Known about the structure:
This protein has about 190 residues and is of the alpha+beta class. About 25% of the residues lie in helices and about 30% in strands. The chain has three helices and eight strands. The protein has helices spanning about 25-40, 130-140, 155-165; strands at about 45, 55-60, 75-85, 90-95, 100-105, 110-115, 120-130, 185. β4 and β5 (about 100-105) form a beta hairpin. The two termini are about 15 Å apart. The model has no long low-confidence stretch (mean pLDDT about 90).
Amino acid sequence: MILEIVKYPNPILKQKSSPIEKVDRTIQKLVEDMFETMYAAPGVGLAGPQVGVLKQILVVDIDRRDGEKRRPDPQVLINPRVVSREGEITWEEGCLSLPELIVSVERSKKIVVEALDKEGKLRKYLGEDLLAVAFQHEMDHLNGILLVDHLSRLKRDLYRKKLEKLARGEKVPPEPEVERGKGPAYIG
Length: 188
């Protein structure tokens, strides 16, 4: 079932998520619905708060990006925590909850995340480049951190005005095109 994606400035997006105590059929159904929602959007990641669920759960599949014909690699991380990180990468990120916004964000280039999988087993996930960015972006959502938090106050105010214009049905200039492979990735 496709879920409604919560949009900024809904206050649920700024709240911290709670750990999941038990991975049961309800959580597994949520995982299925989150993947269906993410693919339909389309995006490469989605976190619980983005579908109104304040639980530490996220889904990522970077191989679905731009409809490329690569092998899907859906990943589920429940109660994720970063155990190591190295390097730096700057990525032009978009977000399904923040329409019409692209932000250049500096993140770790490589991370290892420990989390439960969809069966409730503890695993380690290695993320490099876009996968590392996607994990970090979605984990930010679990902590109430949004792309707008990476902007100056002036740019944040301009973005709010842009959303107000869109809500009134006014046209706004599109975001500039970014070189393929450098972003933007509508991560989640």
